[in-house]
Design brief:
eight-stranded parallel beta sheet; single chain; mainly beta; 191 residues
Length: 191
């Protein structure tokens, strides 16, 4: 690992097929309009509160794995897309989420488990779409503190504090609790 960030790139860069492990700062940090694909970031932040992947505005983060970073697994800024990623056991310091997004982001088809000091997915601002993710064994499964977000087709189970913590003013699909409570059909509002 490095004494600072593992990989840091400027605007409009592509980071692909890279591994960032045991860095004092963030594992991978990208500026605006970048793509991060097929990367792994593990055990970063030894020198403080480093995250696995920190994505600037208008980034695409796809098919990445982030594990055991001191702060967040993936921290994406405004207008970013995070898809098909796996986040596990991040937030090994005081607090940290699996995936954390700001505003105008798309978060889809991700798996977030084992974030005992934070949420599987945390949405901190407005106009995000959170769709078809699986969050389990976190402190909170899905935490949405901003408004005017769209949340649908997510599954949450075995989260310590609560499966869903969603502020008022958001649009969300039907939340079904308990196995076998009712059958799922194409007439459900989120189908």
């Amino acid at each position: 690992g490095n004494g600072g960030d593992g990989i840091r790139v400027g605007r409009s860069s592509i980071v692909s097929g890279c591994i960032a492990r045991n860095n004092d700062g963030d594992g991978i940090e990208t500026d605006t309009s970048c793509v991060g694909a097929d990367c792994a970031a593990e055990a970063n932040g030894a020198g403080g509160l480093g995250s696995g992947i920190v994505a600037g505005a208008a980034n695409i983060v796809r098919n990445c794995t982030v594990v055991s970073n001191r702060n967040h697994g993936i921290d994406a800024d405004q207008g970013s897309t995070v898809t098909n990623c796996t986040a596990s056991g991040n937030g090994t310091a005081v607090f940290g989420d699996g995936i954390r997004v700001n505003a105008d982001c798309l978060v889809r088809d991700n798996t977030c488990t084992g974030h005992l000091n934070g949420a599987g997915i945390a949405v901190t601002n407005i106009q995000n779409r959170i769709d078809s993710n699986n969050v389990s064994f976190n402190n909170t499964g899905l935490s949405v503190t901003g408004a005017t977000n769209f949340i649908a087709r997510n599954t949450a189970s075995a989260n310590t504090l609560t499966n869903y913590s969603i502020a008022a003013g958001n649009s969300l699909g039907e939340i079904i609790t308990g196995a076998g409570v009712r059958s799922l059909s194409s007439t459900a509002s989120w189908a």
